[in-house]
Amino acid sequence: MLDDTHKLAIETINLGKQALIFVPSRASAEKTAEEISKLTTISLHDLEQEVLKVITFPTKQCRRLSHCVKKGIAFHHSGLTSPQKEILEREFRAGRIKIICCTPTLAAGLSLPVYRVIIKSLRRFSEKSGMDWIPVLEYLQMAGRAGRPEYEKLGEAIVITKTESEKEEIYSRYILGEPEDIYSKLAVEPVLRTYLLSLISSRIIRDEESMSKFFLQTFWAHQFQDLPRLTSIINRMLKLLSEWQFVTVSGDDNISNQDKNSLASSNGPDFVSASSLNKPLGMKVQPTAIGKRISELYLDPLTARHLLDCLNQLSNQNKDPETPENLTKPNNNSSQITSASDSFPLLQMISHTLEMRPLLRTKSKEQDSIQEELTKNYSILLEHEPNVYDLEYPEFIDSIKTALFFCGWINEIGEDYLLDKYDIRPGEIKVKLEIADWLLYSTEELAKLTIRREDINQIRKLRLRIKYGVKEELLPLLKLKGVGRIRARKMFNQGIKDLGDLKKVDPANLSQIVGRNVAAGIKKQIGDEVKEIPKGTRKGQLSLSKY
DNA sequence: GTATGCTGCGTTTAGACAGCATGTC
DNA sequence: CTAAACGCAGCATAC
């Protein structure tokens, strides 16, 4: 029951030192921390509370962390909120937290007073080969956390092995082994098309000459010395950008817009004709207005194309509500039951992008319920459902799940419930919301350029709801400074539903709901200068839990 | 009766960069 | 199909 990792951790504490324990999964980070925390005699009540209270409605993850932290132990992974991570780092530096069990989050960048690094396993799951050895580079990063010069004269890195033969293998592979070479990723398609558009937009690439000049100077060219291959990928990307009308190419027949309607030809095996490898001089490339904006927004052109296509569909749906698709649109009362809403199509649109990856994974148990939600909303989706046997189908289903999570968020579902229902942790929620905000902003910008005024409002509204995590009904109240989802909801439930209601409400009542200072601030903002709000008969604010 | 522990089985599996413009509880 | 380990349910054991 007491395994080597636990013993080492306790021994480190007894030495008066601190340790980092690297583990291969988030679940095991939490479990290891929890187990070790049961073995210490430390008691830090203030930290226990601080960690718990970073969210209005703490999740089970917050509770678990706070229990560990109380005993001077912590776990650290991408699922934590950044305030929590900051607390852990601060307290580890202060020497109150003794041990942090972490995934590779802490393997690079940070300098902490770590005397000992304990690596529980050098294997990690990989899609292609089950549990696989991690790169030597990563081992070095982890080991390098121990004995930082600012804190320690000496550091130890200890790798736990399960068998004698594994010990041999680890020794030769990691201790004696050379770190891997670094490879350029420039030729990876999403990367290349993004940078190609950016280079064209910033006018660094204008023609054949400036293009080869630039790419010849890249690390990719230096490393592979295989310009023909790079050229062929570049030409393929250029052709795509041109077909998507993000750039215009002139003076070269091979990459003209002539076949922009035949996407099939661009995917065919002969996408690079012999002549396009050897183009006549005089080819000129220019960004289109949209292309330039896409590049400023840092969107992958493929994503931009996807957003534009969906916007097109949205526009059509809004324009003529009599289209067959819209006849089946769930407009009747029964649709109230669906967890999704009008926003679902746009949320699914942003969920089904490379930028949103990794999407929320649909677990086998959820398959049916997600499918069900899909069929409920199928008719209003902005893109076509791929074939069930398509390789991309699972990703599509995951985009539905991700969209459902967003739907939950903008319907004021708490983070604790989202964790249970969608297996998404607070830290991950933050990240997803940021990406959603970025993509919705980008969508809005693209809509502006394609003159779809009427759709812009819809997008803007959704963006606000994502930002605050509220139902549409709270939006009027959120215009006020000092009012977020929590206070807005409190006021709304007390019958204060818009700025007009706020004018009418008695300052004393308002301060009972949101507190005196905030109430005064609100009244000031709507033009009612209140000299002094009488002190309420009851202290403090009404608790939200009552509603 | 109840807390604890063991076994077997099914299920899951790390992380993080972009735009924009500031202020939630 | 690859592999380890987590979580949970069901059940045995110790008190």
Walk me through what this model shows:
A hairpin with a 3-residue loop joins strand 5 and strand 6. The chain is an alpha/beta fold. The chain starts with a helix and ends in a 22-residue tail after the last helix. Helix 8 packs across helix 14, helix 17 crosses helix 19 and helix 26 packs across helix 27. The protein has four domains: 172 residues, Rossmann fold (3-Layer(aba) Sandwich); 111 residues, Orthogonal Bundle (Arc Repressor Mutant, subunit A); 172 residues, Sec63 N-terminal domain-like fold (Orthogonal Bundle); 72 residues, DNA polymerase, domain 1 (Orthogonal Bundle), CATH 1.10.150. It contains 27 helices and nine strands. The strands form three sheets. It has a five-stranded parallel sheet with strand order 2-3-1-4-7, sandwiched between helices. It is 51% helix and 7% strand. It binds a DNA duplex (25 and 15 nucleotides) through helix 2, strand 5, strand 6, helix 21 and helix 24.
In the CATH hierarchy, the architecture of the largest domain is 3-Layer(aba) Sandwich
Sheet/helix structural class? alpha/beta
Q: Tell me the β content.
A: 5-15%
Strand order of the largest sheet: 2-3-1-4-7
Q: Considering the protein shown, what is the CATH homologous superfamily of the largest domain?
A: P-loop containing nucleotide triphosphate hydrolases
Question: Which runs of at least 5 residues are low in confidence (pLDDT < 50)?
Answer: 255-277, 326-338, 537-541, 543-547
How many strand elements?
Answer: 9
Distance between the termini: 46 Å
Assembly category: single chain
> What is the mean predicted local confidence, pLDDT?
86
- Roughly what percent helix? 40-55%
Taking the sheet with the most strands, its summary is: 5 strands, parallel
Number of domains: 4
Query: The CATH topology of the largest domain is what?
Result: Rossmann fold
CATH first level of the largest domain:
Alpha Beta
Rg over alpha carbons = 28 Å
Q: Which of globular, elongated, flat, extended, rod-shaped describes the shape?
A: globular
